[in-house]
């Protein structure tokens, strides 16, 4: 399915729907994670209305390291800009802990808003932070997180830029503390709450009941997370309007790469029923559009000599 627009070269400049309007029209909002521009393009073509850029997949994709606070704002921001430029969908970006105090939060909000992000979540973990489904997390004082939220809200230039406050307090302090923090964060100006790490259907229901009418998120890490799998419809019935899936695409992609390398090592030809061909791949990366640009703008004396034309001639023999 091709859900992308006709213009795939300058997606960073397009007008995206505000995050609140996306939430209003999709219940629940299913958010796969894109660690690179190609994945974001595929998410768009698959028909999703929005996506996320998460730290778990970014750390693995950029450096082949776990999500344990090894990457920093500058590199994550640069990678996010590449991804956002390639995809016209509204996007929720992982802002970690804001990368420091209220000054860093201010920079983080301004920086991601400037490159076209639609929403940003900031968490209350105490550094060194880690993936929200890993054990041993600690959280900062609720008062310190309130200060960060106020700074972030003040920093945004457009009220449509959605600030989601994430609490990781459920694991170290219990669900009751996570709920209490969530309400304090809403009072500080957050547009929605993200409760990380409920460990049962009962906890999910308790969190959902505590935030009725509030944009509410959590994540499900397929393949090993703390929060048990429930269907998106069940999660919505529990009270969640946003469900993040940080590993669903990543883990499947890793397995596909492993299988391809095993086939190559053993001397097996590529099984096209489990792959794409050149024509399909060219469509994904926008070759027809680049060819159209050559046809439209290349001068008469250069017609037939364009790069894309030559590539096409070579590929078709």
UniProtKB/TrEMBL annotation:
GO molecular-function terms, A-Z: oxo-acid-lyase activity
Gene3D superfamilies: Phosphoenolpyruvate-binding domains
Key word Cell membrane present: no
Domain of life (superkingdom): Bacteria
Keyword Lyase applies: yes
UniProt keyword list: Lyase
Residue intervals passing through the bilayer: none
Protein name as it appears in the record: Isocitrate lyase and phosphorylmutase
Organism ancestry: Bacteria, Pseudomonadati, Pseudomonadota, Alphaproteobacteria, Hyphomicrobiales
């Amino acid at each position: 399915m091709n859900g992308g627009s006709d213009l795939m070269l300058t997606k960073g400049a397009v007008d995206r729907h505000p995050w609140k309007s996306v939430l209003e029209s999709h219940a629940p909002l299913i958010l796969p994670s894109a660690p690179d521009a190609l994945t974001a393009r595929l998410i768009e073509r698959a028909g999703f209305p929005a996506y996320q850029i998460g730290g778990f997949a970014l750390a693995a994709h950029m450096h082949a390291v776990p999500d344990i606070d090894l990457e920093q704002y500058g590199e994550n921001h640069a990678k996010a800009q590449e991804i956002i430029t390639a995809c016209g969908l509204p996007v929720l970006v992982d802002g970690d802990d804001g990368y420091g105090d209220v000054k860093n939060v201010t920079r983080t909000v301004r920086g991601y808003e400037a490159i076209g992000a639609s929403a940003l979540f900031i968490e209350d973990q105490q550094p060194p932070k880690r993936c929200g489904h890993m054990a041993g997390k600690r959280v900062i004082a609720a008062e310190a997180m309130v200060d960060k939220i106020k700074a972030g809200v003040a920093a945004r230039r457009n009220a449509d830029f959605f600030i989601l406050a994430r609490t990781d307090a459920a694991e170290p302090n219990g669900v009751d503390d996570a709920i209490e923090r969530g309400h304090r964060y809403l009072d500080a100006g957050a547009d929605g709450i993200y409760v990380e790490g409920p460990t049962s259907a009962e906890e999910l229901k308790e969190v959902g009941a505590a935030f009725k009418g509030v944009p509410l998120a959590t994540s499900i890490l397929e393949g090993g997370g703390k929060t048990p799998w429930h269907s998106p419809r069940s999660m919505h019935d529990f009270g969640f309007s946003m469900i993040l899936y940080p590993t669903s695409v990543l883990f499947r992609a890793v397995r596909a790469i492993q299988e391809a390398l095993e086939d190559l090592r053993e001397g097996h030809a590529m099984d096209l029923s489990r792959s794409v061909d050149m024509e399909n791949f060219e469509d994904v990366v926008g070759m027809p559009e680049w060819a159209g640009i050559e046809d439209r703008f290349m001068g008469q004396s250069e017609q037939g000599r364009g790069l894309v034309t030559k590539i096409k001639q070579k590929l078709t023999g």
